[in-house]
Write a structure and sequence with these properties.
Length: 248
């Protein structure tokens, strides 16, 4: 292998799975370490997997390596986002009225969800219902140096709707927390009111955290709602397909 020209060696190493490159190949010798850390290798991996165009420039190796790993890790960090596991993974912060319930789409006086992959939703009652999750970024593979220096975007999305025959209220609150649960950054939506005579369409709300500073270790996600007609049962805000993703 030592006699191979570096461009060919980069081609060979780029075909190795990324984790093995970092944990095994990088430790073989100083030459391999330099190649594994190089922009050329990670740009090539990005190009092979459609993450970069053929005309992309090398520049910093760390940037292409970061782009590769973040795209590989990009996934929804909210667990049980659509109610397929009942209320598993959620903490019921508030269960007013008759509490939370899971229903099948489209539901009574409701509309189909924009994605065929979503089959259920959570529905609130005649008093405020709120539920939350805490995401441990380190446990999900987003290490301290990444969060403190690169500070990748943290993108939050949620979907909410009302029944056509009942108005509702909806709120979203997301906090970026430190190791000691101090609030580093926060997004709190206004209280969104949908009228009683509405179309029942699903609405998306989104927020992107950027330049939030060092120290972020957890994401606290909370949403909730209630109806505005105060009917016993589950006529309040419907929520589903919540997501939190870390992106470059």
């Amino acid at each position: 292998m030592e006699s191979l020209p570096e461009p060919l060696l980069i081609q060979i190493l780029a075909s190795v799975p990324a984790v093995e490159l970092i944990l095994v190949c990088r430790l073989v010798c100083s030459q391999w370490k330099a190649l594994v850390d190089s922009a050329a290798l990670w740009l090539l991996k990005c190009q092979w997997e459609g993450l970069a165009g053929e005309d992309a420039e090398e520049e910093g190796g760390a940037s292409w390596q970061m782009l590769y790993f973040l795209n590989k890790r990009k996934r929804n960090l909210i667990k049980n986002a659509t109610g397929e596991e009942d209320l598993e993974h959620w903490v019921e912060v508030e269960s007013g009225g008759d509490g939370w319930k899971i229903e099948e789409l489209p539901g009574d006086f409701g509309k189909d969800f924009p994605s065929d992959e979503v089959h259920k939703y959570f529905v609130t009652s005649f008093e405020w219902c709120r539920k939350s999750q805490v995401i441990d970024l380190r446990a999900e593979g987003y290490w301290e140096e990444l969060m403190d220096t690169i500070q990748p975007k943290i993108v939050v999305r949620d979907w909410y709707a009302a029944r056509c025959d009942a108005g509702c209220l909806y709120e979203l609150n997301v906090k970026l927390l430190s190791e000691t649960d101090e609030v580093v950054a926060e997004y709190r939506s206004e209280t969104i009111a949908l009228p009683q005579d509405n179309e029942g369409e699903w609405n998306e709300i989104t927020h992107t955290f950027t330049d939030y500073g060092p120290g972020v270790r957890f994401v606290y996600f909370e949403h909730g709602g209630q109806d505005t007609v105060f009917w016993k049962g589950w006529y309040g805000a419907r929520v589903t397909h919540s997501s939190v993703t870390v992106e470059l």
